[in-house]
What we know:
Chain A is an alpha/beta fold. Helices cover 35% and strands 10% of the residues of chain A. Chain A has helices spanning 15-26, 45-55, 103-118, 140-153, 175-184, 209-220, 226-231; strands at residues 6-10, 30-37, 61-65, 122-124, 165-167. A five-stranded parallel beta sheet of chain A has the order 3-2-1-4-5, sandwiched between helices. In chain A, helix 1 packs across helix 5 (175-184) and helix 5 crosses helix 6 (209-220). The termini of chain A are far apart. Chain A binds chain B through residues 62, 64-68, 70-73, 95, 99-106, 108-110, 112-114, 116-117, 136-137, 139, 141-142, 145-146, 148-150, 152-155, 157-158, and chain B through 62, 64-68, 70-73, 95, 99-106, 108-110, 112-114, 116-117, 136-137, 139, 141-142, 145-146, 148-150, 152-155, 157-158.
Amino acid sequence: MPTSPRAxxxxxxxxDSTTVLAIAKNRGYEPCALSFRYGQRHAIELDSAxxxxxxxxxxxxxxxxxxxxxxxxxxxTGQAEVPKDRAALETHEEIPSTYVPARNTIFLSFALAYAxxxxxxxxxxxxxxxxxxxxxxxxxEYIDAFERMANLATKTGVxxxxxxxxxxxxxxxTKADIVRTGISLGVDYALTSSCYDPGVDGRPCRRCDSxxxxxxxxxxxxxEDPLLLRFGSx
Amino acid sequence: MPTSPRAxxxxxxxxDSTTVLAIAKNRGYEPCALSFRYGQRHAIELDSAxxxxxxxxxxxxxxxxxxxxxxxxxxxTGQAEVPKDRAALETHEEIPSTYVPARNTIFLSFALAYAxxxxxxxxxxxxxxxxxxxxxxxxxEYIDAFERMANLATKTGVxxxxxxxxxxxxxxxTKADIVRTGISLGVDYALTSSCYDPGVDGRPCRRCDSxxxxxxxxxxxxxEDPLLLRFGSx
Lengths: 234, 234
């Protein structure tokens, strides 16, 4: 049996990255998962990442420690309130306070290091340019620019070696498309968590941007969110 | 008195980054230094970084903790021997084992986060494409690609905001030029350290790539290295 090529999958344990993991596996890759403990207040998502990785039989799962609190600058890593019921969510008119400076660039940089050590030429990331919160580092032109830079940065990119590809399979999908795709690939979304400000038991707040985008996705796909079923309707 | 614009300077405490700090200050910026504890075996360089920052009156100096050992893959962060007296140093024919996967990309990503939080549009890095060890992420085309990506990644890069610039003032300088420039700007190179495998007292090994490139620089500039004078000729 031929060996599957390895791919690094950035895995937060949320809806998007879990779907990406399923897509990478479905495309014939052996997914190697990379998660971060970065001072996020919703560190409970790491438990979800571990559950998801186990459910997909992932053999290599690295949790990298990086302290983004050293710079401050985001309500996701600081003491400030996570905004709830934000009116500008649909319009992308402002960049919300939950934006963590350069987060995807830092995450992709670590993925690049991991890929190089694994001998992998494929990185998967769950950015999405339609149903998103207005973060600049989720745009397709950003991902293209990162890929170009990455091919100049590493041994992989040196002449004659395999080209490194950043896969962003959700880039042009709606949240409903993402949910439908995941369900068709056997994702159990009860294992995932999306909330920026969950309760100690992991109960989602249902009012932050991330909870609202998730609810929109399940609603438009005409499905119940199994995570909400787990926590009851209250 | 008008305020100087802030610039993030990546400061390892070595010869190159210290010279870059002096250049940034000389160009009218208020340098904000960023150093890393990344599992390097030569962590003594952080002491040099602190000494250098103090000598230049730097008010903001962040030391970020990142554990690159989680991936393995380099003799600079692992248990393997640092290569000495390497024949390929001059020819750049191979990428040496001291190469840390994606290191400059990770460092620049953190600099990008710091710049964004500071409201700075300028990042300085001491990469050098002439007298270097053959690392792919020291080439000017790599730095250009990073800058392009960075301008798509961040709030700064969103339409109408200031363009972020990655300054690599040493890119096309020889080590001798770098030494001469630093001396002319008042750098005390006795404060710096370059060795990949120093003794516990900070004494340089004189045989790793970094020590040899440094010696070449002082030699071609016709100067004595004050660091070697500090440790005696032995």
